[in-house]
Amino acid sequence: MSKILHIEDDPANRLLVRKLLQNAGYEVLEAADGLEGVRLACTQHPDLVLVDLNIPGLDGFEVTLRLRGEASLAGVPIVAITAEGDRDTSLAVGCDGFLQKPIDARSFPSIIARYLSGAREELPASQGPLRLREQSQRIVAHLEQKVAELSRANARLRELDAARTEFYRNISHELATPMTPIVGYVKLLADEELGPLNKAQKKALLAMEDCVRRLRSLIDNLLDVTGIETGRMRFMHSEYDFLDTTRRALAQVADRFAEGKVQLVEELPRGPLPAWGDAGRLQRAMIQLFENAAKFTPAGGTAGVRVIVLQSGHYELCVADTGPGVKADRQSRIFEPFYQVDGSATRAYGGVGVGLAIARRTARGLGGDVRVASPSNEIIEGETLTGAAFYLTVARRAPFQDDGSSPGRLGPPSSPPTDPSSSI
User: Fold this and answer.
1) How distant is the alpha carbon of residue 166 from its chain centre?
2) Fewest CB atoms within 10 Å of the CB: 159, 257, 320, 331?
3) Is 29 in contact with 3 (CB distance < 8 Å)?
4) Residues of the chain with pLDDT under 50
């Protein structure tokens, strides 16, 4: 069965040709524009190409020139089929035939059969160079127009990107400002500093405190994303213990694992694991990985945490689970801000898709990185974890960080400062 590719933007014309050719025993492939037609031709290798000259994207002349440059399609007949077009120009650019619309339904299949059998139309030798030169000029004009359109679109995208970054910065700070008194007063009320509470009031305030904590975490994440977007994520370095930081992060998310009925197994060495860097940011990065595991591990599943010292001297935290894992084609994109595997309004998982981006940027700022392996082959405390495994590494001593936001050299001094709150 011969395979015929029909490149045509009009659905009615595609339907007519498809019915005529299928009734004659041909397999029909269809494309609605020039770019899709070229893609199908190069991947499906049809026995004949029917191309309308007036199609969006690349027009029929440009499609023909492109296909004639494809070695795998050498010898494949290309037939122009159009209501408006020039026979001589069509043949000059490489078409083997020219059919005028409307086509004759009765003779159409037999005409196609002749082209498949080797029939070709020829252009007088004197006409070829002139027609090619005229078509080349039209193609250059078309290309110039497209380049101008793309340049304008690119400039507009840059403006929108800058406006988006500015919006993140403004909205994050505007949200953070009223959060300070809210957090303070809720805590005063919950601690009964402003008077005794009955049981129902205490329960209500505890629920409010949990919501405020989650809202504050979201605002902090947005501020971090702004830092990533502008390249101005700041680090406050001091001495800390990597193992102790891991334990503190685990303690903060223990309830999430319990609520999701996820078993948590740990392989933690004996401490201490001394380091120099931003323990606060590192702890938040760890929490992002733990919460990610808690979110995607189904009830009754298992998540594992392991800390080791690499031969390079870096510390490594592995967080693996028995969840669905991450598809190979999405493993690089999950570290992009706001990217979510399921970004629909009805998605099964919450969040705004910034946690992994923050975790990776934090790790890189501390001399390491975050990577993912899925499916995972990790075995932690005898549990085989086949979902996704995330590996966060940091240097024992964080490198210099210069984000350009302040003058002078930024970074830790040659020996740790006595003031643990010193910043870089």
Assistant:
1) 22
2) 159
3) yes
4) 343-350, 352, 403-424
Using one digit for the tens of pLDDT, what is the confidence trace for 41-77? Answer: 999 999 999 999 988 888 888 899 889 888 999 999 9
**CA atoms of 420 and 424, how far apart (whole Å):** 11
The tokens describing 405, both together, are 């936001």
d(CA 111, CA 395): 72
Q: Length of the chain, please?
A: 424
Query: What token pair was written down for 11?
Result: 């659905």
DSSP string covering 8-77: -S-HHHHHHHHHHHHHTT-EEEEESSHHHHHHHHHHH--SEEEE-SS-SSS-HHHHHHHHHT-GGGTT--
The CA-atom distances, in angstroms, between 344 and each of 304, 349, 424 are: 29, 10, 40
The continuous run of DSSP H or E covering 79 comes out as: strand 78-82
| DSSP H or E run through 156 | helix 128-190
**Token couple for 208:** 């409010």
